[in-house]
Amino acid sequence: MKKIILLSLLFFFVSSLIGCSKDNDLAISGKYEFDSIVYLSPLSSSSKDYLNKKMKGTVYTINKDSFKAVSSENHYEISKLTYKRNKMDDELVQAFNDSVWDSSWGNISISEYKERYKYSIYNEQNEKINFYLYSMDEELWIASYTDNTANNSEIIMSIYKLK
């Protein structure tokens, strides 16, 4: 009887470890919808109002190896992806702050979030695509960025909050 209980506990423990590792591989998998604009670069030729209208109803599907965004006007899908999750330590927070500029509707701050993760997304050639996913406490953001070749940094062009 003790062996059965011990084996059952061992099976439960190993199963929970396996389950946790799968969840941690991409804990943000799921289907989301555009909620609002968190940030829009002053370099953007679009306005906040225009983008809020254009993005309304856009559905994002995030899977372990694919990403899809579907709106009434566009369909964007990439498969054979990998995601690299990094906890946003002080260095990554500073890099984030350096990537966003003061916009006409205020600075963006991530200091108030306790759980901050950045997901870099790579294609099948192991090249970064120009999107990041940010998990900020209970919020999920998608950011588009462009490379600043002058100093090899990145400029975040927009951040959308998903629900």
Instruction: Specify the structural class.
Output: alpha+beta
The general outline is: globular
Radius of gyration: 19 Å
What pattern of helices and strands is seen along the backbone?
HEHEEEEHEEEE
Distance between the termini: 48 Å
How would you explain this protein's 3D organization?
This protein has 163 residues and is α+β, with helices and mostly antiparallel strands. The chain has one domain (27-162). Helix content is 26%, strand content 42%. The protein is built from 3 helices and 9 strands, in the order αβαββββαββββ. It has a 9-stranded antiparallel β-sheet. β8 and β9 (153-162) form a beta hairpin. The radius of gyration is 19 Å and the shape is globular. The N and C termini lie far apart (48 Å). Residues 1-24 have low confidence and may be disordered.
What topology emerges from the helices and strands here?
Blueprint: H1 2-25, E1 30-40, H2 48-55, E2 59-63, E3 66-70, E4 75-79, E5 82-87, H3 90-99, E6 116-122, E7 128-136, E8 139-148, E9 153-162
Antiparallel strand pairs: 1-2, 1-9, 2-3, 3-4, 5-6, 6-7, 7-8, 8-9
Quick structural gist:
The protein has 163 residues and is of the alpha+beta class. Helix content is 26%, strand content 42%. It contains three helices and nine strands.
Features of the shown structure:
disordered N terminus; alpha+beta; 163 residues
